[in-house]
UniProtKB/TrEMBL annotation:
Residues at the active site: H18 (tele-phosphohistidine intermediate), E93 (proton donor/acceptor)
Annotated positions binding substrate: R17, H18, G19, E20, S21, R22, W23, N24, R69
Highest taxon of source: Bacteria
GO terms, molecular function: phosphatase activity
Name of the protein: Phosphoglycerate mutase
Any Pfam family hit: His_Phos_1
InterPro entries linked: His_Pase_superF_clade-1 (IPR013078), His_PPase_superfam (IPR029033), PG/BPGM_mutase_AS (IPR001345), PGM_Phosphatase (IPR050275)
Any one cellular-component term (Gene Ontology): cytoplasm
Gene3D superfamilies: Phosphoglycerate mutase-like
C-alpha cells in the first residue's frame, strides 16, 4: 500500500541510508572516503528500491550524496522509476578526518581521549574533520531547499550521520541530541513530513528496515 501524501503543504522526505559497505563490515570509519558496497549491499539496494517504489511510488525529486556507496544504492530505484538523481556533496557523511579508514579499536588506541569525548557526547571535530553541528547545518540546508522546490515526495540517498541529525533537527532536538536516535541500519528509510519554513515537521518513520540482517554501525 502506498503512503498517501497529506492534504496540507508538507513535502514528504524519505531518507535512505546506503547499503552495506566493506568498511561497515570491518568496523572502519568511512566519513567522506568510500570502500564500495559489498555483495550484500548491492542486494540490499535492489530490495530497498522495490520497497520505495511500492510504498512511495515515483518521487518527484531524487537526491543523493555524491559518494559512490550512496549513488550506487540509488541506482536500482532510479531504474525502476525511470528517473534521474541530483548529487549534492552536502549530503555526505560527516568528515572524520584522520580517522578515515581506521577501525574503532585503532582510533581508541591512537586517540583515547578524543574517542572518549565523542562517546561522552562532546561534539568535537572527529580526527580534525567535522563536528555534528556542522553536519546538521549543511544537511538541513539541502532538505530545506528540496522542500521549497518540490511537491509530493523527495527521496534522499545518504548516510547514517545525516539521517540522525536531520531527524533531530526536524523534531527541534538541539545537539548533541542526535545521539538519542539509534544508529541507522543499512538501506533503512526514515520519513519526515517537512512543514515548510514555519514548520512543524512530522516524524512519520525512523530507521524502518527493508532487509533482514542489515546492520547499523557505531562508526560513521
Amino acid at each position: 500500500m502506498k503512503i498517501k501524501h497529506m492534504t496540507d503543504p508538507r513535502v514528504r522526505l524519505v531518507l535512505v541510508r546506503h547499503g552495506e559497505s566493506r568498511w561497515n563490515v570491518e568496523d572502519r570509519y568511512q566519513g567522506q572516503e568510500d570502500s564500495g558496497l559489498t555483495e550484500a549491499g548491492v542486494a540490499q539496494a535492489e530490495v530497498v528500491a522495490e520497497v520505495l517504489t511500492g510504498r512511495f511510488g515515483s518521487a518527484g525529486l531524487v537526491l543523493s550524496s555524491d559518494l559512490p556507496r550512496a549513488r550506487d544504492t540509488a541506482e536500482p530505484y532510479l531504474r525502476r522509476i525511470g528517473g534521474t538523481v541530483r548529487e549534492d556533496a552536502r549530503l555526505r557523511e560527516i568528515n572524520v578526518g584522520t580517522w578515515g579508514g581506521r577501525t574503532r579499536a585503532e582510533v581508541a588506541a591512537a586517540h583515547p581521549d578524543d574517542l572518549a569525548a565523542v562517546d561522552g557526547g562532546v561534539d568535537i571535530a572527529r580526527g580534525g574533520g567535522e563536528t555534528y553541528r556542522q553536519l546538521r547545518k549543511r544537511v538541513w540546508a539541502v532538505l530545506d531547499e528540496a522542500a521549497a522546490e518540490a511537491t509530493g515526495t523527495v527521496v534522499v540517498f545518504t548516510h547514517g550521520g545525516p539521517i540522525r541529525v536531520a531527524t533531530a533537527e526536524a523534531l527541534g532536538v538541539p545537539g548533541p541530541g542526535e545521539r538519542a536516535f539509534a544508529p541507522v541500519l543499512n538501506c533503512s528509510y526514515t520519513v519526515i513530513d517537512h512543514g515548510g519554513p514555519d514548520g512543524p515537521h512530522l516524524l512519520v518513520a525512523y530507521n524502518a528496515p527493508t532487509t533482514a540482517g542489515s546492520r547499523s554501525t557505531r562508526v560513521e
